Amino acid sequence: MGEKLRAGIIGGTGMVGQRFVQLLDNHPWFEVTAIAASAGSAGKTYEEAVSNRWKMDGPIPEQVKQIVVQDASKVEEVASSVDFVFCAVDMKKEEITALEEAYAKTGTPVVSNNSAHRWTSDVPMVIPEINPEHLNVIEAQRKRLGTSTGFIAVKPNCSIQSYVPALHALQAFQPSEVVVSTYQAISGAGKNFTDWPEMLDNVIPYIGGEEEKSEQEPLRIWGRVENGEIVKANEPVITSQCIRVPVTDGHLATVFVKFQNKPTKEQILDSWRQYSGRPQELELPSAPKQFINYFEEENRPQTKLDRNIENGMGVSVGRLREDTVYDYKFVGLSHNTLRGAAGGAVLIAELLKAEGYIQAK
């Protein structure tokens, strides 16, 4: 391909922003040309802004060290130097909503890691292998925002990606009831053990807002596009519990599911092995070759061993067996800051570029 598209990172000094910086280092399609954050970081080089709080394994990439951090609130200034932006800011919901729309109105596509627009009816919330057709609502969103090239697309909550792909691959058998418990890593809260020593040797059985997200966001993923809006699905009915566990990265889920048309175990395993989506068809740079990976071993998937499967972009499943109350039960695992956060957003951006939604200005 020709020259790389110019990418900006809004909120580039935080944990997810740092992950974006790391993932985009030597990306074949994108190059980071702007990093923006709060006014307190503006004016510093990126290296100066994050040197005392760099949380990634490995050093700060050389290509971004000397980029001068800009003030994220100076929208026109930041937007003028990029073709599109990733957004991972830590602000109030209404502030994020306004900021992302301001960038979109400059004609700049916004790929958001934030939750602020997940329920905006004309904003697609996408797992690229599952609902790429939801990108069709971008046309209606552009009309609302008054722009021909700008828009907002978002990724869903990190934890649902540990179980939604496995359920989606079984849609032909019509899952009707799901009980899920997620066991979520501390990086999901933007923390490590140095920041959060209280998590050592501890489990906290509450994560604010997570249970509603775990129950409702899958229904939007499985929804339909109708008159320029996404209408959420009615089934399956999902109930959840979300628990914080002393793990650095990786969200694990235990899942119980009832079907309207109960499949055999062999049918389930075949569905998982054979499932692929638009990213695999397009051979996108960040796409896992095998989206859903099943482990036959009784003690897998394990968070420490399996979270990085397919460079952290694959989903692991194991322990499939029939249940005495529901039809089947299984365990799922995904990497929350790769597939579930920055990596998932980069894959969305690759899909948007491949489908013609993101282009050079």
Give the arrangement of secondary structure elements.
Layout: E1 5-10, H1 15-24, E2 30-37, H2 46-50, H3 62-65, E3 70-71, H4 75-79, E4 84-87, H5 93-105, E5 109-112, H6 138-145, E6 151-154, H7 164-168, E7 175-184, H8 210-221, E8 224-226, E9 229-231, E10 237-244, E11 251-259, H9 265-274, H10 278-282, E12 292-295, H11 303-306, E13 315-322, E14 328-334, H12 338-354
Parallel strand pairs: 1-2, 1-4, 2-3, 4-5, 5-6, 7-10, 12-13
Antiparallel strand pairs: 7-11, 8-9, 11-14, 13-14
Descriptive terms for the model:
single chain, 361 residues, alpha/beta, Rossmann fold, Dihydrodipicolinate Reductase, domain 2, 2 domains, 6-stranded parallel sheet, 6-stranded mixed sheet, 12 helices, globular
Task: Supply the CATH superfamily name of the largest domain.
Answer: Dihydrodipicolinate Reductase, domain 2
Number of discrete domains:
2
Number of strands: 14
CATH domain fold name of the largest domain:
Dihydrodipicolinate Reductase, domain 2
Overall morphology: globular
- As laid out across the biggest beta sheet, the strand order is 3-2-1-4-5-6
Q: Tell me what portion of residues adopts beta-strand conformation.
A: 15-25%
Radius of gyration: 20 Å
**SSE order, one letter for each helix or strand:** EHEHHEHEHEHEHEHEEEEHHEHEEH
End-to-end Cα distance: 16 Å
**Which structural class is indicated by helix and strand composition?**
alpha/beta
Quaternary organisation of the protein chains: single chain
CATH C-level of the largest domain: Alpha Beta
Number of H- or I-type helical stretches: 12
The proportion of residues forming helix, as a percent range, comes to 25-40%
> Quick check: average pLDDT?
97
